[in-house]
Amino acid sequence: MICELFPFQKQAVNEMRLRVAMALNNYRMLKIPQVVSLQAPTGSGKTIIMSALIEDIFYGSEQFTEQPEAIFVWLSDSPQLNEQSKQKIELKADKVRMDQCVVISDESFDREILEDGHIYFLNTQKLGKAGNLSRHSDTRQYTIWETIENTAREKADRLYFIIDEAHRGMQGRQAGTATTIMQRFIKGSSEQKLSPIPVVIGMSATAERFNSLVGQATNSTLHKVVISPAQVRQSGLLKDRIVITYPEDPIKHGDMAVLQAATDEWQDKCKHWYQYTYEQHYTNVNPVFVIQVCAGSGTKVSDTDLDDVIAKIEERMGDSFKENEVVHTFGSTGTLSIHGLTVPHVEPSEIAEDRRIRVVLFKENLSTGWDCPRAETMMSFRRAEDATYIAQLLGRMVRTPLQCHVLVDDSLNDVRLFLPYFNQDTVHKVIDELQATEGGEIPTVVDGESLEDQTYDTWSVHNQRKKTQKQTVGQLSIFDYPNGFQEEPAAGPSTAVGDMSNSGAAAANQGGADSEILAEGQHQTIPLETVSGNDVHAGQETERTSGGNQSVNKEQPVLTPAVSQMSMLPTIDREGITKFINEQGYLTYIVRAVKINSYLKSLMSLAGLLSQFNICITAAEDVKNDVAELIRNYVNGLHDAGKYDELTKQVMEMKLSVQIFDVFGEKIQSDNQIDMFTASESDLDRQLRVADAKMGGCGFHLAYGRKYIDFDNPNAFKVDCILFAFDSECIVELNKYAEKKFHELNDQYRKYIVAKPEKCQKQYSDIVANGDEISKHNFTLPETISAKVEADGIKYTDHLFANADGIAKIKLNGWEQAVLAEEQKREDYVCWLRNPSRQSWSLRMPYEMDGKCKELYPDFIIVRHDPILKYIVDILEPHNPDFKDNLGKAKGLANYAANEPRIGRVQLIRIGKDAAGENRFKRLDLAKGSIRNKVLAAINTDELDHIFDTDGVFED
Q1: For strand 359-362 and strand 326-328, is the pairing parallel, antiparallel, or unpaired?
Q2: Of 136, 282, 321, 834, whose CA is between 20 and 30 Å from 314?
Q3: pLDDT digits (tens, 9 = 90+) for 598-624
Q4: Which of 390, 441, 394 is nearest to 414 (CA)?
Q5: What are the phi and psi torsion angles at 429 (to 5°)?
Q6: Angle formed by the axes of helices 79-92 and 46-59, to 10°?
Q7: Could you tell me where the beta strands, DSSP code E, fall in 268-340?
């Protein structure tokens, strides 16, 4: 394959290869039809996985011999899908020749039996009763049914029939017809005189969809390979979120108003992508704005006013489109003239690669099998009754443009859909339809938001509070006439702090004694007993007056002073703090249920990365030299023991246990005695390939050959490597070396990764995460995040991430609010960060509960001033002692503190009574060695409670 498969894809290919071999063998012995099902969610790369499987069958792998005479038939439900699948195989499977891929033409195809070594593409639309392929004629001696029946009868040992059910875009009667045709190949058909195909390979998004295709009335044996949504989500192939926006008041916000909002979102995405790709040295993504318009009635191309659509977008952009920036996909319609712009027709498959295209107008032909990762924003003029179709289209838009998660700017990890004719209920129908399409578990988060009430907001460390323009005394501003120039100038400040909850704007620069925002160092005391979600405290926007509840006298205008005023918001160097934290490379972890790659594979990947980015240029070569020395020491040991010559003879006679399987999954063994003079070079090379596979496929034999080749006996180094690889004790020793070296390199060079580009950081994170169940990583904060707006949250001005007004609206429970209030009273306090659960950038640490390793996400990260380091970072975890995970999380925090001494305080916090009998927060600081050791030695929660009693402290 030209492209590097993701670990879960490699795992799926290997499992599919084994299942297919078992299916062929089962059919050969029992004559019972076999079905191998690949069930994988949208965006997992099912076509890529199947392409890799075809390549492995044709050309062999480390475990299976090649089968160049194999025959594949790829059945889908549309010609467009056929062409798309064919193009992907030709583009990605570099070993497959282009002349091996054949589209079965309903005009000219006529064969008694399918030809060996080819991939045939067929679709259900050609197999209907009206199709030419199903009828004899003067130019057709064999129907397609006869051709497939003859091939299945004569070549059952090499025929693989692939049913692509994953991209079903048909609905109603048409979909039922396609399913019936597909079922004929699984169940057989007396009408077409077709027997069940011996081995069928199915691709589907869910078990339910494929099971409905297979049906109940069949005796086929079903083999399943399942890819979970979690695996796809972790790979970074899919967007984190799909946000669906709709108007709560469609009269106030009509379709063109929603189009303007969609245009703003698209323009914002364009700016963010340009900034990100420029900084990371990637090719600009150039996001595509996809607009679905209504079908036309009568002679009209569309009932949607296309001229108005383009005019509104250009008006919002403040610019005009150039030729080929706007295209359409309207069926048989050719080039159009829209708002004075020439708009050509393009095929959907051409959109992704044509970088000129910025806006795509379409009706219905993008939901089936269409992939365009550049499609970042979509607007649909379709009515609410089209929920199923909208859901299918959304499934095509969740792929990430760069095939990876964006670390720096989290807003680039979502895709937006605007639906002017939908409401909250109908949007939920879209989400339900998407869940049904994915079998109940969507591989990405889907949220609906009204145009008037935002669900997600962009928070950044860059955004600064908007500055008020300096105004001369007595000079009127355009904003003094909020209702037009016919009205009198508005008196007083246009926005009061008390109205912020409605306006969303801060009043930091409005001034006056009647309203203020608490500045840094000003705090309120919150009694622990009265904490609630509505309490106001430090860091929160408040309304305070010097003489009770007062209001501005609207009869007397309040002029803005000529002297610029200082904002009352806390002055926080958010960019500087984020840079400081990221440069430290604090420890964080990822916990996975299984280890994806072997230590050998992970070691070579990590060493290669360190060499590639000049972190340790010799890392990869050092590892290969180390392994070459392991082989050499083993060979010297054989010479010293007098065993080398006898073992060499066995290699040349092919007596060593070489585990190679045939196409049926059965082990190939050579019973013939071949002396060393008749053993061919190819036999030795085959054993060497197997030896390389047993050593991880890392090319260690080549490194050994370069170092120790004997030109008088050039095959000697091959024999040495084969002997080493087929000694199980040597492989155990090699794996132990790989595990130790992998962790050494990770611990030694992890801190240097933080200074490298995001591409390096992302590759490093993936390598390390795939190499261990519990893997160590650098804690790296993004610069921008998409935060879910919590309607009943509190407005904080001292959160590390904030919106354009310097505000973060966050909902905390009573404990969390009170703990934060105590922190804000500290003299060295700077700011805080809510550590979210299960975000890609969250601070995580492992802990054990009920024998299973889980991830702990501490609630708070506190930043304080430090006279030497500039800043110091604390980790706080308020936790109810009644929860059964208390001891596990306490030990998790303790282990983290032991492994990351640069963190200041690492506190587990609970409520306890002080000497006066008052409820206060008691803190157990696990950064202190004596306390940490006690916690790590505790065996139950009673002992942890005792440690809290003896070592917990109340902080004033």
Answers
A1: parallel
A2: 282
A3: 888 899 999 999 999 999 999 999 999
A4: 394
A5: -65, -40
A6: 60
A7: 288-292, 326-328, 336-338
